[in-house]
Amino acid sequence: MDFNGKVALITGGGNGIGRATALALASHGAKVIVVDRDAAGAEGTAGAIRQQGGDARSVAADVTRSAEVQAYVKAALDAYGRIDCFFNNAGIEGKVQPTADYDEAMFDAVISVNVKGVFLGLRHVLPVMLKQKSGTIVNTASVAGLVGTPGMPAYVASKHAVIGLTKTASGEVARQGIRINAVCPGPVDTRMIHSLEAQLDPNDPANASQRYQAALPTGRYTTPEEIANVVLFLLSDLSGNVTGAQWVVDGGRTATGGAATQAMQR
After folding, report:
1. pLDDT grade, residue 108 (50/70/90)?
2. Angle in degrees, CA 165, 149, 160, rounded to 5
3. Each residue of 127-149: pLDDT tens digit?
4. Do residues 46 and 58 touch, judged by C-beta distance below 8 A?
């Protein structure tokens, strides 16, 4: 887990999993570029790293816009001259709504951030790594990329697509010294899961939370720091010959056939 001398670029770094991973990378010696649509959130994470003695910059960017993705890549190169690690993490959850009723504009928004945003990150970071002949990338997928979740057609479709992009791109660049993997979180104790709880039970989100956590084999949500630990492993030399894989961190949810998903629907 030695990232001394390494430059790490993180999208969606203003909160949740992205923030936890940025802080963890910095604590292991990485210089960090924190990207988020929320400029204050990105700077908050970068500022926290600097307060702890680390080296970090923040960039505000919309990951769905190619010019802004190019700009965050340029900012990393201008600041540090290279990109060794890329956590392609930005994503949104959308609405909980049956496929037959799902809002088309919301579907487009989820696909744009979660799929196009990941693609554009790969599209503009990979040329840098190919020139270096080295680099590691982790894309944030989800257990929703492995199984269905009733009421979340856009999110599920988008995360299946992220796994497909991961597998395709990893095969293209493996011989050039670049590894690409996906992390597949289950329910994580972040803003996103609490948004879903509020949608499922607006009058009593805490009840939705209790039902969901009780149905998980471990009985609790994963923490952002637990996801960050897996991401750091995949970005580090410790994961050596691992590429094109999806790593599940879900408290046993998928191992039990989606019992937690069923609990959320009740």
Report:
1. very high
2. 5
3. 999 999 999 999 999 999 999 99
4. yes
Cα 195 to chain centroid distance, Å, stands at 17
* Number of Cβ atoms within 10 Å of the Cβ of 164: 14
Are residues 140 and 183 in contact, defined by beta-carbon separation less than 8 angstroms? yes
Read off the amino acid at residue 247.
W
Question: At residue 225, what are phi and psi to the nearest 5 degrees?
Answer: -65, -35
DSSP class of residue 41 equals H
Q: Give helix 16-27 / helix 224-235 axis angle, nearest 10°.
A: 50
Burial of 238 (0-12, 13-18, 19+ CB in 10 A): exposed
Rounded CA-CA distance 132/83 in Å is 9
Which of 72, 80, 102, 155 is flagged as catalytic?
A: 155
For residue 208 the two structure tokens come to 């939705």
Beta strands in the chain (DSSP E): 7-11, 31-36, 56-60, 85-88, 135-140, 178-185, 246-249
Residue 258: its pLDDT value, please? 53
Q: Could you tell me the pTM of the whole model?
A: 0.93
Q: Reading across the β-sheet that carries 7-11, which strands appear in turn? A: 56-60, 31-36, 7-11, 85-88, 135-140, 178-185, 246-249
Q: How far apart are CA 171 and CA 139, in angstroms?
A: 15
Active site residue 212: no
- Rounding to the nearest 10 degrees, give the CA dihedral for residues 250, 46, 33, 11: 40
